[in-house]
């Protein structure tokens, strides 16, 4: 009897040992399998993202751009898959492709080309002048290249020479703004011309786009324009018979001297031929363009906008915007003006009669408690009903004639945008980043260029923080996450089991 019990105990002990050994073997095999799965996923750069709530990958502006574009757009991602920026770029491209399937517009086709493996296709892209770590957008034999440097905020660690290497040896945080660049490239592909040349008039005391003064300069807004694909160049009007043939837009910003008669005729003829003009007013200065603007339905008044809605008493905060492509997405934003001239829409039947009359829209206005001040240097400002302009008053307006034309047609409708001051986008004002001044200006520039989609806050694809981990750091992270931590937990479990058994 005792022998039978001893044998049964021995069998049970052996069974427990076999079970324990089998459990340990299963745990070990599971750890090894987990390690190889993670390593394979890292090697193949496999990504599985779980959607959380209703957050979209791209912004409403990008959705509008895709909805406004027709045909197939092919995007070639010419990047090393080991690059630290490949993941945010590929995530953005996946978002663009999914969004194109949900809107009745462009169809996005994405191709990934790794220069290490896809040698034939990589050679073809290199022959087209596409550098490594860049995106190539194609539509109907037109191509636009967006490099990785353009998609990363200047000054971030990802733009150092060391990090530009495909292996990314640098580390740190950066800001990825690829969505904006991709949306701008897609919008440019829909235009009938390839280059967006902006002629910035000089010679009358205008502000310069290459002025880097931290307070009064305009280099920040010029940089924004260049990021959106615009080419800026200075233009002197005297001696010109007509505007340059590759001109897509004329900017007259803060002129402090009057234009000559020949220059005024040149600008007027340019508008008659379907030109695009952005005019930033210098309050209190007569440039001679006032009669020209009135012919297009916009009148400059001698009053300066004032309102109780202000920051320090000298500025005017504008929060009321018209339903227009320039301001449609600024409903919850505010634009801050210093000394802005008041604008009016011309109602003279002699000017605004006929089927082809200009269509004028007052873009931004003060509230009903605002007014046009005749003595802006006197504080506190008070409204005088006898001599001043009753509110609400407008500080920005647009005029368009012949706008019911498809954007891919060679004929261009005339478009004008007049804003009551130039200083609202100088470097000192934009550095605060607490207003929509930048958005209003860039929306106006895009609309003048024929891109009728305004800006909107991004919901993931744009302004995304990236870690900038190098390959070795990713391997270290994978080791600690898949091997070291589980092993420590397993050892603790073994120790606790042995102590409980004793």
Overview of this protein structure:
- The chain has 502 residues and is of the alpha/beta class.
- It has 3 domains: 2-44 and 476-501; 60-185 and 459-469, Glutaredoxin; 191-449, 3-Layer(aba) Sandwich (Rossmann fold), CATH 3.40.50.
- 33% of the residues lie in helices and 21% in strands.
- It contains 12 helices and 20 strands.
- It has helices spanning 2-44, 60-67, 86-102, 119-127, 178-189, 219-227, 261-272, 290-295, 349-352, 427-430, 437-449, 471-501, and strands spanning 72-78, 107-113, 134-139, 142-147, 174-176, 196-202, 230-236, 247-253, 276-280, 298-306, 316-318, 320-321, 335-337, 341-345, 359-365, 371-373, 389-390, 394-401, 414-419, 464-466.
- The strands form 5 sheets. It has an 8-stranded mixed sheet, with helices on both faces. The protein has a 4-stranded mixed sheet with strand order 2-1-3-4.
- The chain is elongated, with a radius of gyration of 31 Å.
- The two termini are 28 Å apart.
- Mean pLDDT is 81; it is low at 50-55, 155-173 and 456-468.
